[in-house]
């Protein structure tokens, strides 16, 4: 494959055609994308397209649609039925191992970004296996070959990063899982502070080696080359490189899901967007981080809504350039603004997106809030097929079964999840609630106590600990925890959707109703699913609870509820 180096205008035109592959792009769209408000002559667009055709080769690649515009449509060679039915190869990309002196985030971030580029390639060249499963197995110390075999992959990509004076050395290895043979091995030297665009180059090299063996059409190479060339021509400045390095660090920090590290990640992301307003990746992370902080109770939902909407408003055409934020926007529209109509539109626009952690999380929260438990299970089962070693997906499945009222199945699912992921302390939240409700209070207390000890700023862990203690008959200890949460709520936001179950277990139904009312007023993301929680069944006869249930039902079925 020979790289295609394009002038800036031709590159911008190709990028727009690639974004609308197979669709007609009007002259007005091209004029706006290439020249903005600058006046140009009528023949500027035909000349630009003629030059682009000359660079790319056969003219039929870019078709002129009479009186409508232009369309990129790459002709493919005739294939046999056997070739057409041949499944795409399954690829797993492991986090790169980092040697002494290399920032840890560099190894995980490079792998994640390469995954994202390949997952969203249209049409796909490979099936890129899900991050959570790959990273879970890699953290257990499994080799690339072992991970590939467990996930039934055809190919595994792994690498190591070593620091040298002025450079990082990336050693990249593509392995065929069936026999452990090396398909490709290469060393890449990258200057310190110039790792932006590395994932694009990695994807481009990978595509080259895959295409060589799969004989796929040429527009895959254009897509990867265009991304790489565009980044180098438009963003190769010291300010951009600094912003990108800050973004990489922030991305690694906030995914720890620890309160202080997430807040540090938020500040870093904001700094990165200030340095480089064109860094869309950082704005996408701002959206996902904000949603994560809200779900964990680290930030008030109304503040999160402002952050999310501000970040989204600064992304041009998010439905094209950052579609993965659409489910998060839909979720905010529903549970904060109580606008089902806009939420449904945003989820519909993003329905084609494949499973990714925060995309699926938003979909599940939305369906649970509308009490569509079977739909939630379908979403989870589909996600688990592509991401079988994701602890969060298996734990959420147990919780959906609990909310659905299938106690036996929820306990069985939780047991299976704990057995499959014994090292995951985050599973303790769901395990404690499910076991305490189903008559296993001592086991529930142990799970909740350990979680609260390891994550002292995680309010749901404290509330769940109180619930488990109450079911175990340790009422005084439970009340002490709940009183501490009430005291903390005077100083900062405290998520209150998990405390009603503890008050119910203590027999204080008035306090439980007050906690639910506070969750409603604060637009807590767990409020609607809390109303469906069978642990709150004793509240069913209270008018206040009935009113909340009616509001939830109306919101789930009406266009707008205020």
Q: Count the E strands.
A: 9
Query: In terms of per-residue confidence, which ranges show pLDDT below 50 for 5 or more consecutive residues?
Result: 75-84, 215-234
In terms of DSSP E residues, the strand content is 5-15%
Shape: globular
Count of DSSP helices? 28
In which range does the helix fraction lie? 55-70%
Q: What distinguishing features does this structure have?
A:
562 residues; alpha/beta; three-stranded antiparallel beta sheet; 28 helices
Report on the architecture of this protein.
By secondary structure, this protein is α/β, with parallel strands linked by helices. Helix content is 60%, strand content 9%. It has helices at 8-19, 27-35, 44-56, 81-85, 104-119, 131-139, 144-150, 198-214, 219-235, 238-254, 259-275, 280-295, 301-313, 318-321, 326-335, 340-349, 357-369, 373-386, 391-404, 407-420, 428-437, 441-454, 459-471, 475-488, 499-505, 509-521, 527-531, 543-557; strands spanning 24-25, 62-65, 69-72, 90-93, 97-98, 127-128, 155-164, 167-176, 181-191. Strands 4, 5, 6, 7, 8 and 9 form a 6-stranded mixed β-sheet that branches. The protein has a 3-stranded antiparallel β-sheet with strand order 1-3-2. Helix 10 (238-254) packs parallel to helix 12 and helix 21 (428-437) runs antiparallel to helix 22. It is globular, with a radius of gyration of 26 Å. The model is unreliable at 75-84 and 215-234 (pLDDT under 50).
Q: Secondary-structure blueprint of this entry?
A:
Elements: H1 8-19, E1 24-25, H2 27-35, H3 44-56, E2 62-65, E3 69-72, H4 81-85, E4 90-93, E5 97-98, H5 104-119, E6 127-128, H6 131-139, H7 144-150, E7 155-164, E8 167-176, E9 181-191, H8 198-214, H9 219-235, H10 238-254, H11 259-275, H12 280-295, H13 301-313, H14 318-321, H15 326-335, H16 340-349, H17 357-369, H18 373-386, H19 391-404, H20 407-420, H21 428-437, H22 441-454, H23 459-471, H24 475-488, H25 499-505, H26 509-521, H27 527-531, H28 543-557
Parallel strand pairs: 4-6, 4-7, 5-7
Antiparallel strand pairs: 1-3, 2-3, 7-8, 8-9
């Amino acid at each position: 494959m020979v790289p295609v180096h394009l002038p800036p205008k031709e590159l911008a035109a190709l990028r727009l055609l690639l974004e609308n592959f197979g669709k007609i792009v009007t002259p007005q769209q091209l004029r706006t994308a290439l020249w903005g408000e600058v006046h140009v002559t009528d023949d500027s667009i035909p000349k630009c397209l003629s030059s682009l055709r000359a660079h790319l080769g056969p003219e039929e690649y870019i078709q002129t649609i009479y009186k409508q515009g232009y369309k990129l449509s790459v002709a493919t060679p005739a294939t046999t039925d056997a070739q057409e039915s041949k499944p795409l190869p399954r690829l797993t990309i492991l986090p790169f191992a980092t040697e002494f002196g290399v920032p840890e985030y560099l190894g995980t971030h490079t792998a994640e970004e390469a995954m994202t580029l390949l997952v969203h390639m249209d049409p796909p060249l490979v099936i890129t296996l899900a991050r959570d499963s790959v990273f879970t197995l890699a953290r257990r110390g499994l080799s690339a070959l072992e991970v590939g075999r467990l996930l039934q992959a055809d190919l595994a990509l792994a690498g190591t990063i070593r620091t040298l004076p002025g450079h990082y050395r990336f050693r990249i290895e593509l392995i065929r899982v069936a026999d452990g043979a090396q398909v490709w091995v290469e060393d890449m030297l990258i200057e310190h502070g110039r790792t932006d665009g590395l994932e694009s180059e990695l994807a481009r090299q990978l595509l080259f080696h895959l295409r060589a063996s799969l004989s796929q059409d040429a527009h895959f190479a254009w897509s990867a080359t265009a991304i790489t060339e565009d980044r180098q021509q438009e963003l190769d400045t010291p300010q951009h490189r600094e912003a990108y390095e800050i973004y990489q660090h922030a991305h690694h920090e906030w995914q720890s899901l620890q309160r202080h590290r997430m807040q540090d990640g938020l500040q870093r992301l904001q700094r990165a967007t200030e340095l480089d307003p064109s860094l869309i990746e950082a704005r996408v992370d701002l959206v996902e981080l904000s949603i994560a902080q809200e779900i964990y109770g680290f930030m008030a939902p109304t503040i999160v809504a402002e952050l999310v909407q501000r970040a989204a408003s600064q992304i041009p055409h998010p439905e094209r350039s950052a579609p993965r934020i659409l489910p998060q926007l839909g979720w905010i529209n529903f549970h904060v603004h109580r606008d089902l109509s806009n939420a449904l539109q945003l989820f519909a626009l993003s329905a084609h997106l494949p499973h990714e952690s925060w995309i699926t999380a938003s979909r599940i929260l939305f369906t649970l809030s509308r009490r569509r438990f079977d739909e939630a299970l379908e979403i989870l089962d589909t996600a688990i097929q592509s991401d079988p070693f994701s602890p969060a997906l298996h734990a959420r499945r147990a919780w959906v079964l609990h909310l659905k009222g299938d106690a036996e199945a929820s306990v069985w699912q939780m047991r299976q999840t704990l057995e499959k992921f014994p090292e995951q302390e985050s599973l303790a939240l769901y395990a404690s609630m499910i076991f305490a409700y189903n008559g296993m209070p001592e086991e529930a207390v142990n799970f909740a106590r350990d979680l609260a000890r390891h994550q002292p700023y995680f309010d749901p862990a404290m509330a769940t600990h109180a619930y488990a203690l109450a079911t175990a008959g340790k009422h005084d200890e439970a009340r002490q925890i709940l009183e501490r949460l009430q005291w903390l709520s005077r100083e900062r936001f405290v998520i209150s959707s998990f405390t009603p179950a503890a008050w119910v277990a203590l027999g204080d139904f008035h306090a439980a109703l007050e906690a639910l009312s506070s969750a409603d007023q604060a637009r807590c993301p767990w409020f609607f699913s809390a109303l469906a929680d069978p642990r709150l069944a004793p509240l069913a006869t209270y008018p206040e609870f009935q009113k909340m249930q009616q509001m939830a039902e109306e919101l789930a079925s009406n266009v707008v509820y205020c």
